[in-house]
Write a structure and sequence with these properties.
This protein is of the alpha/beta class. It has a single domain (2-144), classed as D-tyrosyl-trna(Tyr) Deacylase, Chain: A (3-Layer(bba) Sandwich), CATH 3.50.80.10. Helices cover 20% and strands 38% of the residues. It is built from two helices and eight strands; from the N terminus they run βββαβββαββ. Strands 1, 2, 3, 6, 7 and 8 form a six-stranded mixed beta sheet that branches. It has a two-stranded antiparallel sheet with strand order 4-5. Helix 1 crosses helix 2.
């Protein structure tokens, strides 16, 4: 499971002409599910995300989590994060989960975040989306459930 987390002042996602998710201060998270991911990965990643200390405290040090600042999370499914670009010129997606598994775990991650009392907005799984954000910093992190970095 891979997340690209962006600290934002605001973000929203549209499908066609409809805004389907909108947050103020918090995290815009692009999420990709790998073929071998399971609910243990979803729990680890959800917990890591809501407790990741990447917001500034009173001394301007990254010491607060999205939970601490009463922020929100906008989750956007993005299977291309599992694209393998090491060979040739076209990414391969063999590492990405099939759509049914991916959607189930995507929904599970959203549910687990909500259980931590962090508001969650979402894109629409499998749809073409237009995502807009005002990044804060910019501050971006990549999280990986297999902990390869």
């Amino acid at each position: 499971m891979r997340f690209v987390c962006q600290r934002v002042l605001e973000a929203h996602v549209k499908v066609r002409d409809d805004t389907v998710g909108r947050i103020g201060r918090g995290l815009l998270v692009y999420l990709s599910i790998g073929r071998n991911d399971n609910e243990t990965d979803a729990q680890f990643m959800s917990d890591k995300l809501v407790n990741l200390r990447i917001f500034a405290d009173n001394e301007d040090k990254m010491n607060l989590s999205v939970q601490d600042i009463n922020g929100s999370i906008l989750l956007v499914s993005n299977f291309t994060l599992h694209g393998d670009c090491r060979k040739g010129r076209r990414p391969g997606f063999d590492g990405a989960a099939d759509p049914q598994q991916a959607q189930r775990l995507y929904e599970k991650v959203a549910e687990m975040i909500r259980a931590s009392d962090v508001p969650v907005e979402k894109g629409v799984f499998g749809e073409h989306m237009l995502v807009s954000s005002i990044n804060d910093g910019p501050v971006n992190f990549i999280l990986e459930s297999s902990r390869i970095f």
